[in-house]
Write a structure and sequence with these properties.
Number of helices: 5
Structural class: alpha+beta
Order of helices and strands: HEEEHHHEH
CATH superfamily of one domain: Cytochrome b5-like heme/steroid binding domain
Radius of gyration: 19 Å
Number of strands: 4
Strand order of the largest sheet: 1-2-3-4
């Protein structure tokens, strides 16, 4: 592993099928060689390429085997903000992303559970 530190500009320069970098948990990985082997298909990787893919990686719940593959693809540590600067006058999000947005899927699940409970109680 080299002592090179990577930035968002480095990530942005490598977001194609020919050279694909992504940031996961503060480290930059070159996943180019893994495109054809990824069980979810190369589209998933290409969509997350060139940016912070930590949330997408963790949301999928990768196996220990998948996590064990990461060191082989490690390029080095990341330094700097994880968001690309927006045009002048536009607001930028902090690197923390959206507050509470990680639980958006719970609302439809809660509605479904409430409906099922209602149906069960009415049928009883």
């Amino acid at each position: 592993m080299s002592a090179t530190t990577y930035t968002i500009d480095d990530l942005q320069a490598h977001k194609s099928r020919e050279s694909l970098y992504m940031l996961i948990s503060g480290k930059v990985y070159d996943v180019t060689q893994f495109l054809d082997e990824h069980p979810g298909g190369d589209e998933v990787l290409l969509e997350e390429g060139g940016r912070d893919a930590t949330e997408a990686f963790e949301d999928v719940g990768h196996s220990d085997e998948a996590r064990d593959m990461l060191p082989k693809m490690l390029l080095g540590p990341f330094d700097g903000p994880t968001k690309v600067a927006k045009a002048a006058g536009a607001t930028t999000a902090s690197s923390g992303g959206s507050t509470g947005g990680d639980y958006k899927f719970l609302l439809p699940v809660a509605v479904l559970v409430a409906w099922l409970a209602y149906r069960f109680l009415v049928a009883a």
